[in-house]
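So, can you check this one?
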Amino acid sequence: MPLSEAQRRGINSFLSGSVSLKDALQRSARLLSEITGQVAIVASPSLSKATLRHVELVPVAMSTLLAVVITDTGRVAQHGLTVSAMPTADDINRLSGAVNEQCNGQSLSSASETVRALGGTGFETVREAADALADAFASMALDERANELYMSGTSHLAHSRSLTDLAPLFDALEEQVVLMKLMSNLSEEPSATGVGVSIGSESHTPELLHASVVSSGYGRSTSPVANDSERNETSPDQDSTNEPIAFVGSIGPTHMDYAATMAAVRAVAKYLTFFVSESGSGD
């Protein structure tokens, strides 16, 4: 069931004020909860699915460099790199310039290999720093976890559930690893609507026996907008191929309005895909 024009404008207006990925995810959780009257959960992208956009190397101590890593999803990660002798400022700038030139758009695992190879091709003076940065990229690439879950609307449960059902459901909400696995799997299942649904026992989670979960993936859009008018108005509502990097979803009673909930989850996921794609484009 498509959202009304007023609802689409409301989503676009509320989420377009986001100043960062974290702000967009927090706003998305609050908005989805208000639309559905249920618990909304939005996951931040895991670093393992990100590609490198920019890295900055900053000396912070006699033997420590701080690597500030920015990914295409807008995530910012910081890693301390220990070296036995601090390279000169020129050498540090030369290394960071080469990394940004050669690794932009690479997965973190590929970037790790590229940076490690740099140490033996004219960058011998910063070999130790290059190896430490390669190790940091490799560690980030192995991080399969989403960094955070943003949740909103738990107060809505009191109005839709009996007291006997609330305790196990709150337990399920506390078990974030279980929720992440369930909602991530749902969001990645092939579906004509782009939305996965699990009702009651289908979740194979006892605490969710009397609840339903609706989830959709968001990520990188393969159909970037062409001009400013499309960017501002059309693109969040367009259908495009989506490479999921995280999920957005809703948890509510089994008697929920599935058509409305699925439409809301799908709309918010599409907007987050647009937001991530815009962030990764550098616009």
Observations:
- Residues 258-281 form the longest helix (24 residues).
